[in-house]
From TrEMBL:
The gene is lptF_2. Component of the lipopolysaccharide transport and assembly complex. The LptBFG transporter is composed of two ATP-binding proteins (LptB) and two transmembrane proteins (LptF and LptG). This is Lipopolysaccharide export system permease protein lptF. It comes from Anaerobiospirillum thomasii. One of its GO terms (biological process) is lipopolysaccharide transport. The chain crosses the membrane at residues 12-32, 61-79, 99-121. The keyword Flavoprotein does not apply. The keyword Membrane applies.
Length: 209
């Protein structure tokens, strides 16, 4: 019984360490990618943390089976290299019992992975889509700032000198310059307005042209 607990704890400890290291690497890569997208205005910076949070179940499903495999290799390799397996066999603790404990750890990991796959990932994906949809329709999340050119990826650049928040989700903007195909000598155009406002559905309403 003592050996069972010892091997189980060693397997679990190795898995948690490997999981923490790989989790940090994956989250760092995801965070760098999202921050780079936020820096160019593809997504609002305010939702980066939420997107990372809802990506955790998907990352867990990828890493959990891998970490249990690596943990078994590390733990059994260390037990054999330290001659602990020889001592265990001398007291009647066969390698088959060690593998049974490893299978228990693998079974628990499989259950957690199944819960993440069946329940958590669909909900997290739905929340991600909802956040991105709200970001596109909510002017509070639009990547428009004072004194900065913003490209919307459709040949349109917008420059606004002043952005003021009003009640609710509206923003009041002043001195607006909308440039369509600014680098084209044929189809290029520019529209200006002294003031306007932003409202839902990503509409820019301008007046006093």
């Amino acid at each position: 019984m003592i050996l069972n607990r010892y091997i189980f704890k060693e397997l679990l400890r190795s898995q948690l360490v490997v999981f923490a290291v790989l989790y940090t690497v994956f989250i760092s890569q995801l965070l760098i990618r999202l921050i780079s997208e936020a820096s160019i205005g593809s997504i609002p910076g305010a939702i980066v943390a939420q997107l990372v949070l809802y990506a955790l179940p998907e990352i867990s499903v990828i890493l959990l089976p891998l970490t249990v495999f690596i943990a078994i290799l590390i733990t059994l390799g260390r037990i054999c290299s330290d001659s602990e397996m020889v001592v265990m066999r001398s007291v009647g603790f066969s390698p088959a019992k060690v593998m049974n404990i490893a299978l228990i750890v693998a079974f628990i990991t499989a259950l957690i992975t199944g819960v993440c796959s069946i329940y958590l990932i669909p909900k997290a994906s739905q929340e991600q889509q909802k956040i991105l949809s709200d970001a596109k329709s909510n002017p509070t999340f639009l990547p428009i700032e004072s004194g900065r050119f913003v490209s919307f990826g459709v040949g349109m650049n917008i420059y606004i000198e002043e952005v003021e928040k009003e009640g609710g989700d509206n923003k009041k903007i002043r001195h607006i310059y909308v440039m369509q195909n600014p680098f084209s000598q044929i189809n290029g155009s520019m529209t200006t307005a002294s003031e306007g406002y932003l409202q839902r559905m990503s509409q820019v309403c301008c007046g006093c042209i």
